[in-house]
Amino acid sequence: MNRRPIRSAEVVSVGDELLLGVTANTNFTWLASLLAEAGVRVARETTVGDGEEEIRRAVDEAAARAPLVVVTGGLGVTPDDRTRQALADLAGVRLVPDPELLREMEVYYKDRRIRMPRINVSQASLPEGAGKIPNRIGLAPGLRMRIRRAEVFAFPGVPAEMKKLTEDGLLPFLRMRNGEAPIRQRMLRTWGIGENALAEKLRDFLARERPVSISFLPERGGVTLRFRLREGAKGEPEKILAEQTDRAAAILGDLVFSTGGEELEEVVAYLLLLRKRTVATAESCTGGRLADLLTAVPGSSAWFREGFIPYGADRKSGTLGVPEEVIREHGTVSARTAEELARRARAVAGADIGVGVTGVAGPESVEDQPVGRVFLALDSAAGTEVRRWDLPGSRERVKERAARSALDMIRRHLLAEREGKR
Amino acid sequence: MNRRPIRSAEVVSVGDELLLGVTANTNFTWLASLLAEAGVRVARETTVGDGEEEIRRAVDEAAARAPLVVVTGGLGVTPDDRTRQALADLAGVRLVPDPELLREMEVYYKDRRIRMPRINVSQASLPEGAGKIPNRIGLAPGLRMRIRRAEVFAFPGVPAEMKKLTEDGLLPFLRMRNGEAPIRQRMLRTWGIGENALAEKLRDFLARERPVSISFLPERGGVTLRFRLREGAKGEPEKILAEQTDRAAAILGDLVFSTGGEELEEVVAYLLLLRKRTVATAESCTGGRLADLLTAVPGSSAWFREGFIPYGADRKSGTLGVPEEVIREHGTVSARTAEELARRARAVAGADIGVGVTGVAGPESVEDQPVGRVFLALDSAAGTEVRRWDLPGSRERVKERAARSALDMIRRHLLAEREGKR
Lengths: 422, 422
Hints:
Two copies of one chain form a homodimer.
Chain A: E1 8-14, H1 16-19, H2 26-37, E2 41-48, H3 52-65, E3 68-72, H4 83-91, E4 95-97, H5 99-111, H6 120-123, E5 125-127, E6 131-133, E7 142-147, E8 150-155, H7 159-178, E9 185-190, H8 195-201, H9 203-207, E10 212-219, E11 222-229, H10 237-252, E12 256-258, H11 264-275, E13 279-283, H12 289-294, E14 304-310, H13 324-330, H14 335-349, E15 353-359, E16 373-380, E17 383-390, H15 395-418
Parallel strand pairs in A: 1-2, 1-3, 3-8, 13-14, 13-15
Antiparallel strand pairs in A: 4-5, 6-7, 7-8, 9-11, 9-12, 10-11, 15-16, 16-17
Helix pairs in contact in A: 2-7, 3-4, 11-15
C-alpha cells in the first residue's frame, strides 16, 4: 500500500450550470482553501459539463498528473448524473446495484410520500469495489477509488453534502496519510486602507529577505495580508509566522483588526462584550446594512439595543426628532445630521454608543452631494466624533463600505477607550 | 481569414489565489454567463497557478481543442505576471517593448507621485504582433493572438478590467464573427417552494416531450427554472420559449415572481411604484436585512418610509409601543407580537403597508421557540395578515430566508390588491 504523504491534488468540477455561468463554483473555493490548510497544494482545477465523455477525459488527465483527484458533481441519483459511470469505466469495473443505497432511496421517498420514480432503481448502482462514504444529508454516497496511480474521491455537487463528505471522508484520509498538517500560513486583516497604500507603509519591511512570502488580498471585508512560510525556511513554523506577522502588525498599528481570521463585526462584538457596552444605530444611506452586519453575530441581542432607518425625507425629524432646522441648514447628507442621528439613536434606545450614517448611495446624487459621500458619527459619554468618506463604486459597494467603515469606527472607539484616551 | 461562426470556447483562469481558495473565481462565472448569452458554449474551464510553465500547458491544451480561448489573470505589470511570456512562447514570437504602454506606465506612476519601479520597464513588453485592446481602467492592455488554430484573448484578472476589456474587445469580435446571438433561453424565478415540490407540481408538464430542456436551479433568491431551446427545435426560438415558459408559469401561478430575471426586491419595488404604496418595516430576528434588501433598489426612498429594529428585549415596547402585556402573554416570538410590530411600524411611519418580523435566528432558541421559527405580519388598510414559517439552516440562512419571505408577502399583497381581492 502506498503510504507516501500526498502534497498535491487536482480538482475536477462537474456541472453544466457552472459552464453556463449560472452558478459560481463556491465548492471549489471551499475545497481549495481546506486542502491548502491540510498542506495539499491544488495544482489545477478543471470544470467540465455533465456529459459522461467529458467527465471521463478530465478525470483521466488529472489522475495521470496528480496523486489525489477530487471530483465534485454529477453524483446525484438522477439519470443526468454520469460521474459514477465515468469513474467505473476509468477503473475498468462495472456498475453494480447497491442494496443499501436502494433501501435508503425507498425510505427517502416513502418519508416524503412521493412515489419513487422507476428510473431510480438503476441509479442505485455504484462502481464495483469502490469505497463508500455515507451521506448523512442527502442520498448519494461519496466514493473513493483508485484510477491509474491516483486516489480519487468523488462527492455530490450539493454544497452542504460535498462539505460534509469531505470532512467525513477526505480529511480523515489525509490525516492518516500525511499526519497533522503543520500551520504554514497566517493572516492579518485590515480595514480602511487600500492595497497600494498598505504596500507603501510596509515598503521597508517588504524590501528585506524574509522566511515568509506575503500576498495582498483585497476582499469585501478589507485587504487581507497572507504570510506563507517559504519552502526550506529554518526554524519552527509557528514561531516564524508569529514573529513575522507581529512585526508587520506593529508597523500597521490599528489598521489591523484581526490576526485570527475573524470578521470585523466579530471583533466589534468581542470588544463590546469585553467592555460591557451597548450600541444603537440610525442609518439612512446604508438602509439597515450596519444593523444586519452587527446582528450577524450570535448573541448580539446582549449588546445591540435598537436600530433606526429613517429613510423617507421627513422621517429623520419624525421618530428620532432630529431638529428640522438642522436638516434645513445643513442638509440630510451632512456632518451635523450624522451627529444628530448618532446622539438621538443613543438617547432613544438608552445605549452606551450611538452610530449615525447619512450619505448618497447612488446612482443619483442628493442635495448636490456626490454619489459615494458618506458622513459617519459616533456618540458616547466621551462626546461625538464624525468622519466624512468619499467611497467609490456602485450603490451596493457604497452601502457595504459605509457600513463596514461604521463598524471600524466602533472598533477604534472601543480600542481607544481601553487605552484610557477616553 | 477564417470566418466561420464560433460556437464553443475554453477558458483558462490564472492565479495562485484561486487555487489556494482565497478568491472565488467570479470572473469565470461572469464570463461564462456572457458567452452563453452570446451563443458560445464553454466546453471546459481550467484553473492554473501563476507559473509560466503551467500557464503555457493549459493554454496549449485548450487551443488544441477549442476555436476560442479566453485567458484571465497573470497579465498585470509586475514580475509575477507570466501570461505574456507564456503566450509569446506558444505563438513562437518574442516579447518586444511597447513604447505606448511604457509611456502610460510613466504617466500612471507620475500621477500617483510614486517612483516607477525599475523592473517595470521590462514589464512594458508585449508578444510581437499581438493585437492590443486598450485598458481604460488599469495599466495592462488586453491581448488578442492566434495560437494553433485558436483565437486567444487574454485579459488581466482584476474583475473590473477583465469585464471592460471583454466588452470592448471580445464581444465586438464575436458579433462580427457570429452576428447577433439569438435568444436560446428564458428563466422563471420562484419563491416559497423547494426544488422537489416544484418538480411535483410540473409533473405532467415535464412528462411530455418538449422543444426545450428545463433545469431547476436553487439559488439564494429562490429556485430558478431555466428553459433552454433544444438543438434542432423547429420554429422561431423566441416564440417557442415564450410559449413554453407561459405554460409552466400558468401552472405555477403566483409562485413565479419574475419572468425577466429580476430579483424579488426589484419586483416588489416595481409593484409599490405602480400602486403608489409606501412601506415601513419592524424587524427583530432579521436585524435590518429586510430593509437592506428593499433599499438595494435605486430610488427606494420614493416608497420606503422607515425601518425599525427593536432588538433588545425591552425595545419592542419602547419606540414602537408594543403593549407589554402582549409580549408577556404571547412572547416576543409570536403571531400577536408580529402583528403589533407591523401595525405600529405602519402607524408611526405613516406608511400604507407595515411589515413585522419576529423569530429565532439561532443558534440558541428563545422562549422555548425552536431555531428557525419566524412570524411575519403585514398590516394595511385591508387588515392584518400573519404567517408562521419554520426555516432550516444557519443564522445567516434564517435571516436571509425570513427577509425574502417578507418581501414575497408584500408582493402577494400587492398582486391581490390589483385583483380587487382587497
